[in-house]
Amino acid sequence: MATLELRDIRKSYVAHEVIKGVNLDVADRDFVVFVGPSGCGKSTLLRMIAGLEEITSGELLIDGKRVNEVGPADRGLAMVFQSYALYPHMTVRQNMGFALRMAGIAKAERERKVAEAARILQLEPYLDRRPKELSGGQRQRVAIGRAIVRNPRIFLFDEPLSNLDASLRGQMRIELARLHQELDATMVYVTHDQVEAMTLASKIVVLQAGKVEQIGSPLELYHHPANLFVAGFIGSPRMNFLEARILGADGGGVRVALRSGAEIVVPAAMGGAQAGGTATLGIRPESLRPDPEGPIAGEVRLAERLGGLTLLHVTLAGGEPLVVQIEGGDRTGAREPIRLAVDGAACHIFDESGQALPALERHPLAA
Amino acid sequence: MSSTAIAPPAAPAAQDRSRTRSTLPLIAPSVGVLLLWMIVPLVMTLWFSFQRYNLLNPEVGGFAGFENYEFLVTDPDFWASLTNTLVLVGSVLVITVVFGTLLAVLFDQPFPGQGIARVLAISPFFVMPTVSALVWKNLMMHPIYGVLGVLARAVGMEPVDWFAEYPMAAIIIIVSWQWLPFALLILLTAVQSLDHEQKEAARMDGAGPVAQFFFITLPHLGRAISVVVMIETIFLLTVFAEIFVTTSGGPGNATTNLAFLIYARALLQFDVGGGSAGGVVAIILANIVAFFLVRSIARRLEV
């Protein structure tokens, strides 16, 4: 059992507040991922949980006990650093056993735990090498092994895969997911890579400028982003944002008009928005499809062919840019006129303050 | 269209040869000067060491064979000077490395006035040896006017006449004071290059400040310490000015090191042959030390 609670956690450097009141509940065996652009405070928040940064105000509770004043080694946490932070003059065995040695655990017991971690991570052949003689992925595994041997209540990861190349990153991502299952551990993970966030997390925390924008499961954030920032941050390629005017609402949802005059009905409630007011219509590139009868007209400026799928960069009649994701087999090319259709249910409306209008129905996968 | 623009590649060997030929005249002057600069004194020293050559007795000359060397190694002063040299080098190395490491760790911590404190700590290195030795001799260690004497009297103790009672300790203090900044400078940059995340990882692993120092900082400083040891050894083998202006090798031969012994032979007793023999011994010793040091350090640097 290991739960983590953050109660209005704040962090200031002199007069500059970098974490502006974060509340979060992490249940046992959760895999929580902090995502956000650089400088949003996600690493600082993790370091505050680890005890490496002081908490200016608020409460941090592990298993229900306040640990604000407890030192990093005594919180029962283990951290995997971005640079791995392996001790270069120690062998893999010594690196992994260091924490146990500091804790004064007998040599035989130490050896047993290191061997167990090495088995889980398939590091057995490398135990007597130094970090320098290992590849990036192996060093990464040693760093994780160093965390495992401590048998921590919570694992903390600070952008652990950002130093690996793309293929290795994919491999380690799967490995981490497997470890999470195998160890039944609570994990907190920081990344700026939304693919890592989407694939690993049971709960994503989207941060911007020290504030939580939204907390939810990956598909919840994807299908029901709370605001423009989350909508733009989650999903690749990025969601398209089009200027729109709210015409009114009825039982089927909210009717909006684009600048070109095309009208779309989105199954959402009016919330705080007013008829006649301006709004932003969000459409994911994957929910648009070419349709000769479609209401949205434009011209293809560029076709990015990725093989399996193609990204069309379209300029609408009003001059607004739009990205459309279509089948890789589609022949539509640059400088061709195109008409697009969209399913209103896949669209999002954001009011003038950037907040999403509440959807009438939750997506089945994001319940 | 542009294929004709590519010149056929010259054979590499031919290219190398022509390159050597064309650059040789350019580097020849400096190489020549350096060679003369090194070879001429070396050959002359070797030559003199096998000659009967005493300025007080110019009549006696000619080839001496190994007489000068024999005279040198049977002279108790020579063995005393060797011991003194080793004691001086060893003590100063230990003092500068130990205190340099501790100071480097201390100066790595942020505290108000850090910049000024660093400059002050490093400044002794920029004082020339003669001056610093004179300052220590007259301002610090003089039993009557010296600061240490005044302090001793202030607490009711008998002032210590350093150069009479503890001459070697006094020299070691002066030389250490001069070389500590050098060790500090090198070790401080090494401490600062320690990966911050490594220290944090150690903190997470439960290592306290002392354990962090011994398990993380000190191994990280290994290379820097060997560099300090190597460079200081080379310079400390030839300490001269500090001895010359304070004790002149005395009392007796208590502070005579090899460099001072050679000076005394050649320029106080006017025995050029004997002095040269001492010089040759010093060259051999320095090379033996350098060989072992460079080898062991080169091995360290590889890791």
UniProtKB/TrEMBL annotation, chain A:
The keyword Aminoacyl-tRNA synthetase does not apply. It comes from the Bacteria. CDD domains: ABC_MalK_N (cd03301). Keywords: ATP-binding, Nucleotide-binding, Transport. PROSITE patterns: ABC_TRANSPORTER_1, ABC_TRANSPORTER_2. Residues 4-234 form the ABC transporter domain. Gene3D superfamilies: 2.40.50.100, Nucleic acid-binding proteins, P-loop containing nucleotide triphosphate hydrolases. GO terms for cellular component: ATP-binding cassette (ABC) transporter complex, substrate-binding subunit-containing; maltose transport complex. Pfam families: ABC_tran, TOBE_2. One of its GO terms (molecular function) is ATP binding. The keyword Transport applies. Belongs to the ABC transporter superfamily. This is Various polyols ABC transporter, ATP-binding protein. It comes from uncultured Craurococcus sp. The lineage of its organism: Bacteria, Pseudomonadati, Pseudomonadota, Alphaproteobacteria, Acetobacterales.
